[in-house]
Amino acid sequence: MLDRQIQDYLEWMNNAGYAPWTMAQHSQILNRLLDFVVLNSIPWERTFARDTLQAFKDHVQVKYAGFVLRGFMRYLHQNGIICLPPGALPEGRGRSKLQRAQLPRLYEEYLQFYTQTRQVGHVQIYRVRGTLSALNDYLQNQGMELKDLDVLHMDAFLAERNRKYAPETRIHERSGLRGFLRYLYLERQIL
């Protein structure tokens, strides 16, 4: 049963738009979990017990193993395959706050529009939400509204936001902003 759940999870990750290297890491750890469970004859009902998972993490000694296991268990729980008590899975660092933070209505409407027109996964929505949240914070700090945006403001925002990011991340940031600005211009006639 575990091998089938791992395959389903990796397929879900692929459909959700996870990066290939992230999927490779998850695949490696989860296949090692499968080997560990088979080698130690651990029954399905004990596979996700705290002591089993701790023994597995001690066995593999991979820094990110706990992260992979939490993601896998969250997936299984959300799909009704395993039952976990409330609070059993801590949220990932930083993610939960950003995912739950409500942006102003116009931003949320854009995210809805973006999701429907682009058919993107939750990872891409997460990235765009982060960019829009940073833009919203920037505009509030500058005392500006969206209708006041111009090229100089966007350049200043991107210079501030992207100074610590790798070139690939900068490309994603600019792409997310371009889509939002296009929406404001074409769909909402705000810019």
From TrEMBL:
Check the record and name the Pfam families matching this protein.
Answer: Phage_int_SAM_1
GO MF term set: DNA binding
Cite the InterPro entries for this sequence. CB, Integrase_recombinase_N, Integrase_SAM-like_N
Q: What range does the record give for the signal peptide? A: none
Q: Which domain of life is it from?
A: Bacteria
A Gene Ontology biological process term: DNA integration
For this UniProt record, give its keywords in alphabetical order, as a comma-separated list: DNA integration, DNA-binding
Protein name per Swiss-Prot or TrEMBL:
Core-binding (CB) domain-containing protein
